[in-house]
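Tip: read the tokens left to right.
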């Protein structure tokens, strides 16, 4: 299947001057989901004095995503470039890296194909970046829109679904808290990203062959290590659409397995090198303790309560995460050498 580069109309192609803001939608097989995102972007308010552009980064889709974008380009507002790029390397990390390379603006806002931004999201995101030039990246307030019934005790695992309601006041993420915003609704300063985020991250994102996640946290951690602040901006609101299939056991268990396996990277990337050998043993002891305690506490419910089963998958695979990541890096090394 061929994936031609779908371009905008000739009038849009002639736009040469840098934009003020770029919206990058990273998608994989999102032909059914992406229209709702594009429709909301077309309805953005108070952007008349703002030069902004929209990218669709197709991350190796096999569906009709390219055709859907091409159809939108036919009737898209001429003053807002809508461009399509195809990234054949599977993984959201590669898609975001391509967006940063192609953007003409200093501020780049990321949306997934299941993220519906508020009608003022673009202008709110741009203004915050202008008012806080010392901030390298900042996240949105993210609400969930769920299809179907939520599992019992869902609140215990809600944070793993990129749902962030961290107060109504903008604030900096303090390094000691070890909490960072997810990529959904994230805005990053392009120069901060290009100067600090490696072109090849350890984590590359979920795809058909693996459920590793956390590539967004790895990238943001590199920005913070470059002496940029990371903030939460609740004025930027996004709704994360979560279909019923993502609340089923056959999706949730591999999902939490992947989060656990990624954890060695997301833990260590924030630490000085000299601390890592010591913290390896601290985390190993902590994960083992949590897993054993969880088994003893919920042993009779692990087959019937999906939330308890997800938590156990997370603890167990956090424990083996270092071995998994070391093996991954070794295989990647030999692949590059061959």
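Filled-in amino acids:
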């Amino acid at each position: 299947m061929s994936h031609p580069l779908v371009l905008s109309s000739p009038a849009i192609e002639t736009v040469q001057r840098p934009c003020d803001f770029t919206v990058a939608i990273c998608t994989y097989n999102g032909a059914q989901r992406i229209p709702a995102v594009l429709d909301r972007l077309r309805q953005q308010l108070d952007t008349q004095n703002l030069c902004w552009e929209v990218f669709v980064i197709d991350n190796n889709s096999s569906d009709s995503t390219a055709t859907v974008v091409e159809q939108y380009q036919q009737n898209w507002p001429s003053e807002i470039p809508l461009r399509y790029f195809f990234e054949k390397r599977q993984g959201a990390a590669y898609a975001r890296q391509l967006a940063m390379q192609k953007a003409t603006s200093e501020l780049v806002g990321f949306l997934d194909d299941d993220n519906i931004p508020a009608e003022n999201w673009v202008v709110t995101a741009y203004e915050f970046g202008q008012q806080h030039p010392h901030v390298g990246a900042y996240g949105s307030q993210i609400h969930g829109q769920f299809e179907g019934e939520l599992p019992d005790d869902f609140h215990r695992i809600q944070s793993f679904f990129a749902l962030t309601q961290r107060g109504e006041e903008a604030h900096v993420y303090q390094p000691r808290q070890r909490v960072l915003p997810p990529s959904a609704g994230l805005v990053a300063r392009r120069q901060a990203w290009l100067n600090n985020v490696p072109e090849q991250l350890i984590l590359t994102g979920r795809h058909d062959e693996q459920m590793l996640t956390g590539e967004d946290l790895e990238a943001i951690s590199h920005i913070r290590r470059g002496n940029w602040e990371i903030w939460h901006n609740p004025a930027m609101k996004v709704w994360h659409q979560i279909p019923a299939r993502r609340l089923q056991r056959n999706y949730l268990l591999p999902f939490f397995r992947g989060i656990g396996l990624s954890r060695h990277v997301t833990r260590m990337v924030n630490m000085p090198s000299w601390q890592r050998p010591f913290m390896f043993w601290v985390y190993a002891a902590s994960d083992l303790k949590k897993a054993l305690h969880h088994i003893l506490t919920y042993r009779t419910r692990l087959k019937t309560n999906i939330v308890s089963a997800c938590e156990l998958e997370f603890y167990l695979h956090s424990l083996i995460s270092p071995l998994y990541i070391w093996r991954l890096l070794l295989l990647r090394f030999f692949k590059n050498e061959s």
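The longest strand covers residues 229-242. The longest helix spans residues 276-298.
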